[in-house]
Amino acid sequence: MDIARNPASIPGNASLADAAPEPTAPDTIRRLDYQPPAWLVPDIALEFDLGIELTKVRATLTVRQNPDAARDQTLHLCGDNLAAMDLLVDGNPAEGWSMSGSNLLLPLPGDAHEVTIETHLHPATNSQLMGLYASNGMLCTQCEAEGFRRIMFFPDRPDVLSRYTVRMKGDRGAFPILLSNGDMTASGEDEDGTHWAEWTDPWPKPSYLFALVAGDLVARRDGFTTMGGRKVDLAVWVRPGDEDRTEHAMRSLINSMKWDEEVFGREYDLDTFNIVAVSDFNMGAMENKGLNIFNTRYILADPDTATDGDFDAVEGVVGHEYFHNWSGNRVTCRDWFQLSLKEGFTVLRDQMFSADMGSEAVKRIEDVRILRAAQFPEDSGPLAHPIRPDSYQEISNFYTATVYNKGAEVIRMMRTMAGPEKFRQGSDLYFQRHDGEAATCEDFVKAMEDGAGLDLSQFRLWYEQAGTPRVNVAMTHDAGSGKVTLEVKQQVPATPGQPVKKPMPIPLKIALFDRGTGTHDGERTLQITKASETFTFGGFAQPPVLSANRGFSAPIQLETEASDADLTFLAASDDDSFARYEALQQLFTRELLGATDSGPNEPRRAAIAEAMGAVIDDTAIDDMMRGELLMLPAINFLIELAAPADPVALHEARERLKAYLGTRLRGRLTALHDRASTVAYSLDAASRGARKVKTQALILLAAADRAETARRAEAQYRAADNMTDRQGALAVMSGLDVPARGELLADFHARYADNALVIDKWFAIQASALRSDVLDAVETLAGHEDFTMKNPNRVRALYMTMAGNPFAFHDASGRGYRMIADLVLKLDPINPQTAARFVPWLGRWRKIEPVRAAMMREQLSRIAAARSLSKDVREQVTKSLD
Ligand code: PHE
Ligand code: ZN
């Protein structure tokens, strides 16, 4: 079959202006202002005298002029909340130094010097959880992105790479375990009840990869022999009592190490690999060289306390941090604008790893769901930015779904275009060329061009332009010639600072199905490069059914003119499981968006019920996939499509559809639930799949028959021998007005009172309930004795869940908005990084109908008017109001 490319007129292309510069705020940092550092620090020796209240740090920096930079006799050392208690140059008191804001400027006469600095830290009062802080009696550090400057004055930028020697001493009772990067090279005991350890990391690294942990910890130990024969001691460190919940993390680590050797040829490079779990942590985890530090929620898992989803998250994050050892540590970032260089690539690597450990098809659907729920709204809102941003005020605000997840999609497209083997050659070349360096996104793209043999000149736009491209495909069929023509048009929406966009290169996978046979003549990848172009295919006696963006080959919003009948056909017959899922999702979406205007569409509802019924009956798919196919689109995704949206109307339409499906499919859903309930617990796919469909069945049934489903859910809760069943049942119960509800919530709390991660679930389950009194519940929970603003997991469990619950957040009274604004104002002085992460919810006002939008803006203005705001919150609020 021939494929004729017929580039049509290219509107947009002639008038392409360069992006207008963003308005400059005083403290805006710009990518194009990059200058190499004037001074390098090849070696640093750190000495810690540890204490929870007071820790003294002494650093000796070997500094020398950078031959590749403009000469500057002043050494610029970043500091944040630090005072230099002692400052020596080549052993003598420093002269002529000054402070510039919180930074230290030190004039140096020659080319090479030794600088010694002492600082005093107060970990117990460090509630920001950046730098050195105390968590549950232990000491730990978090330095990415700019936390090292809260420990020591230093050129705290990722292009300054140093060899670290760390010596720490502390009380043996309080800190029996002393860890840092690299391998332990010496240790000893002193007579005064203290002991000490020295750790040496032979690999030069930027300061953001420094880490130290001291505390009362126990380890699960294991070993791994690398492909080159290196024997590595592995340890997962947790608080005493938690060691039984580390088996899955350790297994995931070993699987990651093996997988990276097999799939990317990457071998581990130290004799020690330590992971430490801490309960107070701003993010998921951190890839410090040889000493990964994790949020406990991504380490601790056992069947009684962790859901299947939690197990997957542990596997994915353990893999992610391990993979950073090459994509991030051996090759690091030149500056923070290059963040996606390590994060986008590493997310792709962890996605591929999880796909290989489980089901590739299901994993792809999950990843697209996350992208649509988290990244699409960002890309179409006031905080939209390219995966390689051009400017920022506070870098912590750029650890985003765009940099991470869209960044992964962009590299995935390169892989799709090159094929797996060539892609591997590209990544090999990248690692070989830039090992030991601080690289740029451009370096990665160039290595892919040279190694994988791709021409990525136009593709670089994916790094430059923000916004999700909208692609429209219109199909025409000519019965006389048997020709099918696809007219493809694309448009990239304007985003802040980028009013005019160029057309993107888009690899679009398609297949054309024969309606009669239900088959197609092969998948094709269309390389779209223009604003508008047509593709022609011959040999079609009948008009085919178009299946497009198969496997989600590009991160775009696709519009086609598929009829309901076409979608029903694809939902039943597409051999690409993502496309099959997608067809069903489109049917749902159509129905839900249409229903808010003109009520349900009877034929379409019936078609959906029939398609869902077919999914339930289909013996060719496993339960993991079945569970995926039975899920309705999230309200937060529908809001994107409906904008301006009435979230509660969408919610009601969604509940009505659930009720309709639950009623129509009651017999089959009940049978599905019964069948799945007989499957015994294990971690294999069949057993996990059974648990997944059980909860999905309950969700649909609950909307149809509350009383009967409540009985079923209660039975599932009481019989549960694992958290997946228990949490699934309780979540369904918590949305219902039945007497057993309160009893089961109380039972859950009592049962797990001493397990912080499960108590987080208890908060989240109540904050996610689709009930009219959910905001009252959140307010009450905020006053619960287990609630604290000091622990980010707890704050997120209650408030991030509430903000993500459209029924609560978008309550017509505006109370949900007010509660989030109150939280931001209250949390900002405690933990600005975490506080800033709540602002984007209010920043979505443009997507919401005008009455609510005004209330959302009002709350943003109220935050903006606060007397003192962190840089983090200030940036997000200002941009969100624009
Ligand atoms: N670099 C970490 C990761 O993605 C994320 C992180 C960023 C953690 C900043 C802490 C602070 O793996
Ligand atoms: Zn990462």
TrEMBL record:
Residues 564-881 form the Peptidase M1 alanyl aminopeptidase C-terminal domain. Residues 117-209 form the Aminopeptidase N-like N-terminal domain. Its EC number is 3.4.11.2. Keywords: Aminopeptidase, Hydrolase, Metal-binding, Metalloprotease, Protease, Zinc. Transmembrane segments: none annotated. GO terms for molecular function: alanyl aminopeptidase activity; metallopeptidase activity; zinc ion binding. Pfam families: DUF3458, DUF3458_C, Peptidase_M1, Peptidase_M1_N. Residues 17-27 have a biased composition (Low complexity). It catalyses: Release of an N-terminal amino acid, Xaa-|-Yaa- from a peptide, amide or arylamide. Xaa is preferably Ala, but may be most amino acids including Pro (slow action). When a terminal hydrophobic residue is followed by a prolyl residue, the two may be released as an intact Xaa-Pro dipeptide. Signal peptide: none annotated. Belongs to the peptidase M1 family. This is Aminopeptidase N. It comes from Croceicoccus marinus.
